[in-house]
Each structure stands twice: as structure tokens, then as C-alpha cells.
Amino acid sequence: MAASVGEAFVTSDVRRGIVELLPRLRRFSYALAGDPEKGDDLVQEGCARAFASLDQWRPGTRLDSWMFRIIHNIWLDQKRAAKVRGIVVELDAVPELSSVDGRDVVDRRLTLKRVLDAMAKLSQEHRELIVLICIEGISYQEAAAILDVPIGTVTSRLVRARRALHAIAVEGQNAEGESDTPVR
Amino acid sequence: MPSQLKGKMRRAKVTHLSDETLMAYADGQLTPVEMARIERLLASDPELHARLEAFRTTGHELAALFDDYLNAPLPPRLKRFTLPPQADLSKVFDLSPGRKERVLPSIGRLRLAAASVAILAAGIGIGSLMQGSAHRGSTELCKLIKLTDDHMVALQPLQIVLDTLPSGKEAAIPFSEGKSSKMAVQLSFMDHSQNYCRRYEIGLSSGLRYGGIACRLDGEWKIEMHAVLPPPHTQPGKISPAGNESRALEAAVIAVMDGDALGREDEAAIIRRGWRKN
Predict the structure, then answer these.
(1) In this structure, is the dihedral angle defined by the CA atoms of residues B76, B78, B83 and B85, taken in order, positive or negative?
(2) What angle do CA B72, B63, A79 make, to 5 degrees?
(3) Cβ distance of B50 and A98 shorter than 8 Å
């Protein structure tokens, strides 16, 4: 009900679009930051920046991608400022997926906490791809545009990111490898 | 032949698919023709199924874990972004003790030392004064709201409405002169101090309209905000659609509201127990 009250006050299409995106922006930021409060910090800062520069959004482009890019840049700035570095191990430490038994995966199915814990152990490049593509459902092409990298880099990184996430969250691996060497 | 190379050849024989392609299949990002080709391969290759499982687990299954978060209520600090840029909060008058000093001097002619009825009329009629209108509705209004030493409270007719009227309903309150006022409650919610509050609207027989926020405190409805609304376009005494002022009032509601508005069932239960918190 509160959302519908707020919605009635939004006057411009872009502002209205951003307001409608707020739940997704919160999910995106929560998954990126790994913490709901820090996630809302990102959304708050992202909306403040976006509302201050609404004229920079180009009609015909995706508003969600624009907002994701803004929030992603804020997150990167924060990470750089904090000089946070993820835990890394060699890629060889990540087991081959072909050795995973499907029945075993079902028994150790994912939980939100397990996923968030695992994502905290991923590198920045891997985590942002997981959030954009696996959680937000952004296409590989859009993700490449948001992150300003070639689409080939997106797919190869995403394979490694998902192997690492699966290894940590499902198979109990402690950390991921960070190498960008092609997998196969 | 080196054993490592033999292993790679064996794997290639079995799958013929890169992880990138398999992942794109799991994500539905291939063409229909490619999707069909991989489905045929999956039907005859158990190892491919095992490889695919990891991508499925980290795809739709992963996203579903965050679904509940999509429906979570917005915190106040994000709710403010839902306000319109042109919301004119200067037309919403916060009459709480801490803010009275900032509100009353702005209307110049009013004096705190005046009789309580005069202050009430002035306080309620700020918008009318600024527009140069007379206080035609002050007599009726004084029967609905009273100014005490440091705050304003709802008198019996309005109090009964706030106590008992479900949100979205309208009630007619008769007065002794044979006149009646229309009152409506738009929504109920909790403020940041966890007090129950209600957004109300009053349409006097004179045609004057007021909107406000009343919060339940110490067994009475304390008037937290009260604004003059634009004249109705409909018949006198009839609640009319919201204009800019009532939109600004709604903006204030959103600012003080903690969480979502109360749902119909929750509100009905709270009305039944007399607005006690538990």
C-alpha cells in the first residue's frame, strides 16, 4: 500500500522507472555488498547520484542497466577506498564439476546464507558477474556493456565464477581461484 | 601419448561442448536451434548432465533465493526517493510542540498568547489566512480538534472516527445546527516511535477541507499535522479528489511512516482491541 502511495507522486518517467526498480536495486546491491544495510547504502547513494543526473540517461537504453552501472561504480569506489581484497587460492584447488554427483548436489542444496557466505569469498570480478547475470538475469551482452569488458571475457569469467561459487557453496570448498586462464 | 592428453581427448569425445556453451544453455541465452541440439546431447550423456547441474544450481535456483527480498518493504531512507520533486512541504503544517515556533511566526499575524480557540482556528486555518480566506469552518472545526497546553488532540466526533472507521471509508458527523461534516480515513500506519497513526480528511459543511495525521498517544489522538486542502470541486461537505496540498500531505505521511501501511485485516484487529499495541 505504501508503495502505491509513493508511486502516485512520481512525476517524470525516469524517476518513476527508478522507483519501480527499487526492489531490484535493493536485491542487486544486497547481493553485491553481502549485507542488507550496506546494500541499502549503495541504493541510497545510487539513487541520489541518478536523481542528480537524470539528464544523462539516454532514452532507448535500459534504465536498469544504467542504475546497475551507477551502483556498481559506487561499490567499486568503496572497495578501492577500503582496499578490500578477497581470499584467493589457486585455480587448481577448485574441483572439476564433472566429478560432482547430481544426487549429492540435491542433498546439499543452496541456502541464502550459504550463497552469501560463498559470494563473500569470490573475487570482485566474479561476484559482480554472478549478481548481474545469475541473480538479476541480465544478458551476457548487457553485462559486458555495464562492466565495459568484451562479451568473451564475460562468458569465460562467468564460467569460472560459477564453478567457484558451486565449489564453495555446494561442495564446501573454502575459497576460489582467481586466475583468468581459460578453463577449456 | 602423455596421460594428460589422453584425458582431454576422452573428455572431448564424451561432451563436445564447452562450459561456456553449456552455461549459456542453462541460462537460456542460446538460439532455439542450439538449445535443441544440446537437449539431444543431454539425453544421451549423463556426464553432461552432471556438468550442467552446477550451472543450473548457480542460475535460476540461485536467483530464487533472493525472491523474498524483492517484496520487502522499503526503509524510510529509500522511501524518500518515491516523493515527487515538486512536493511542497511548506503547505503541510507540523504542529508538534518542537516545530510550532517555526510554523506560527511564519504567519505573522498570529500570536501564541491568544485564546485557545483563536489559536486553534489560526493553526488549522493557516492555509486559508495565506490565501486571504475567512474562517468559515472554524466553528465546526473547534468541535473536532482542541488545543491543549502543548499539543492538539481530536475531540469526540473525530476521535470516534479515528477509533472506529476503517481506512477507505467515509462517515457523516451531524452537528447541532443541523449541519454535518464528512470525515474519511485514508490509511493507518506506525510512525518511527511505533505509535499508531492515521491519515484523515475532513470536509466541512461550508466546503472547507482539511487533511492531517493523527497519532495515538496516551489514549488520545494527537494531531501531528494538519493542512488546509483546496476547495472541493464537488458539492460542499463531500470529500473531493486530492490536489497538490493533499499530495504534499501524503509526502509527509511517507516521511513519517515506518514500514508499510497497515493491511485491512491488521487494522480491523487493532480497531477491535482499541488501538492498544498488544
Answers:
(1) positive
(2) 80
(3) yes
